[in-house]
Amino acid sequence: MLRPTNLLPLFTFIFLSCCSINGVVSDPQTNLLKTRCNPYDRFVVTNISIFSENLNATLQHIREQISVQNKFFATAAKDANGENPVYTLFQCRNYLSIADCVACFDVAAGETRSCTATMASAALVVYDGCFMRYNSNGFFDEAPQPSNIVSCGNQTTGEATAFTTTVRQVLMNLQKATPRIPRFSAATKIHVPNNKGATLYAFAQCVDTVTVKECLDCLKVEYSSVEICLPNSDGTAFDYGCFMRYSTTSFFADNQTIDITPLIKQGSSNKGPTIGGVVGGIALVLVLLGLFAWIRRPKKKERIPREGIIGASMLKGPITYSYNDLMSATNNYSEENKLGEGGFGAVYKGTLKDGKVVAVKKLTLNHSKRMEEDFESEVKLISNVHHRNLVRLLGCSSKGHDRILVYEYMKNSSLDRFLFGERRGFLNWKQRYDVILGIARGLTYLHEEFHVRIIHRDVKTYNILLDDDLQPKIADFGLAKLLPNDISHLSTKIVGTLGYTAPEYAIYGHLSEKADIYSYGVVILEIISGQNCKELELNGDDEGIFLIKKAWKLYEKEKHLELVDKALDPNEYDAEEVKKIIEIGLLCIQASADVRPTMSEVVALLQNMDLLENLRPTMPILIEIN
Question: Domains in the chain and their CATH numbers?
Answer without folding.
Answer: 7-135 (3.30.430.20), 149-265+281-295 (3.30.430.20), 319-408 (3.30.200.20), 415-614 (1.10.510.10)
